[in-house]
Amino acid sequence: MENFIFQNPTKLIFGKGMIARLATEIPVGVKIMVTFGGGSVKKNGVYEQVTAALAGRDYIEFWGIEPNPKIETLRKAVAQCKREGVDFLLSVGGGSVLDGTKLIAAAVRYDGDAWDLVRDGSLIGEILPFGDVMTLPATASEMNRNAVISSIETKEKYGMKVDYPRFSILDPQTTFSLPKYQRAAGMADTFIHVMEQYMTVTGQSPLMDRWSEGILQTLVEIAPRVLEEPHDYDTMADYMLCATMGLNGFIAMGVTEDWATHQIGHELTAINGLTHGHTLAIVFPGLLKVLRDQKMAKILQYGERVWGITEGSDEERATRTIDATERFFRSLGLQTRLHEVGIGEDTICEIERRFNERGVAFGEGHNVTGTVARRILEEVK
Ligand code: NZQ
Ligand code: ZN
Questions:
Q1: Residue 56 Cα, ligand 2 centroid: separation in angstroms?
Q2: What pLDDT, in 10s, does the model give residues 359-374?
Q3: Which of 177, 200, 266, 372 could form a disulfide linkage to 256, CB 3.0–4.6 angstroms apart?
Q4: Cβ–ligand 1 contact at 141 (below 6 Å)
Q5: Which positions fall inside the Fe-containing alcohol dehydrogenase-like C-terminal domain (predicted)?
């Protein structure tokens, strides 16, 4: 096991009717900006619950943080916060609204352009406190300090570290209105978050391995119900908790991480606009094929423990495990090949070019360069 420091300060407030807790969780006397996406919260009753809980508070609303939050939009929110003396932020929506809110929180006390902070985290100084009502189980942004911010102008998308939410309110009932595609993409995202922290080397921590496998097995078990019975409270509660536990640091203690699938996926979104979780469902099976030898021992462990694949040679079991993984994503209704989502050779070339130009080498083996990214994407053309 590797050395690690673990501290996760987010207060998780989970369950039916918990949005009302906003009334007591937000400190008194602060000027609040409430941030929203495109309006889903007005159709599912979340907006009414939030405004009821904020009755009598001094707050303003900022609407329009889009999926894959754009710096061009966030700059407007930062300017408004500065103008109006906002000192607390409340995000209401999915991971994009919360990630955008994290960037706003970091930029309000910064004098330069907010994009500087995305490119150079060392410039982040004072960060406004923030909390959230999370309505989409996927990113675990509700219990981590990550934000992923995009630029329309440059067609770039980068992850950064900001800060943890003070509190996160998760009422599974808010997810009942999620479109099927968002549920599928959210489950794929959660599945790959676990994989990024698990599918590396064996033998570092049997405990971390089994926690990860527990989340993967739970997702496989509940996926058909999440797709077909999205109004079942207990199913959606399990799904929501899987998503939070997938990327809140609890399964990463002392183990090696990968994250190459995410880096390639971010480029697919930046260049083509494809939904985050969907990009991962395409890239990950290709990555397993290309890095099969490097990851062989873990692929076999995963195949046995999650898919019950125990018969045959190592090579046969690895092949069946990778196939089972791709079949799982397809069972969610997601296409797993680039041509099926209209992505072609030009995008592969551009990703290879960008990675080579940036001189990156992602993954636990520090070997996913532009050239290897090309091979991965060619596997899933
Ligand atoms: O904008 P509104 O109208 O609210 O609609 C949203 C949006 O169109 C809708 N939605 C959200 N909750 C809903 C709902 N519709 C009906 N009912 C509800 N309860 O869903 C659409 C997608 O929302 P979005 O927030 O974009 O999805 P998600 O939560 O998957 O976030 C994706 C973003 O998070 C980043 C991704 O790269 C992407 O930019 N990630 C953030 C991470 C983190 N902070 O740790 C890690 C992830 O790996 C990921 O990279
Ligand atoms: Zn993700």
A1: 37
A2: 999 999 999 999 999 9
A3: 200
A4: yes
A5: 184-350
CA of 261 to the centre of ligand 1 (A): 18
Alpha helices in 57-179 (DSSP H): 71-84, 95-107, 114-119
* Band of residue 101 on the pLDDT scale cut at 50, 70, 90: very high
Report the distance separating Cα 307 and Cα 220, nearest Å.
Answer: 9
Assess whether the C-beta atom of 40 lies below 6 angstroms from ligand 1. yes
Domains: count for the chain: 2
ipTM: 0.99
333 sits in which H/E element:
none
Q: Which atom of ligand 1 is nearest to the CA of 141?
A: 44
> Which ligand 1 atom is at minimum distance from the Cα of 149?
39
**What does the DSSP 8-state code read for residue 173?**
G
Q: 184 and 156: one domain?
A: no
pTM score over 0.90: yes
User: How high is the pLDDT of residue 290?
Assistant: 98
pLDDT tens digit sequence for 56-65: 999 999 999 9
What amino acid occupies position 116?
A: D
The answer to whether the CB of 162 falls within 8 A of the CB of 145 is yes
Helix, strand and coil in the chain, % to nearest 5: 55, 10, 35
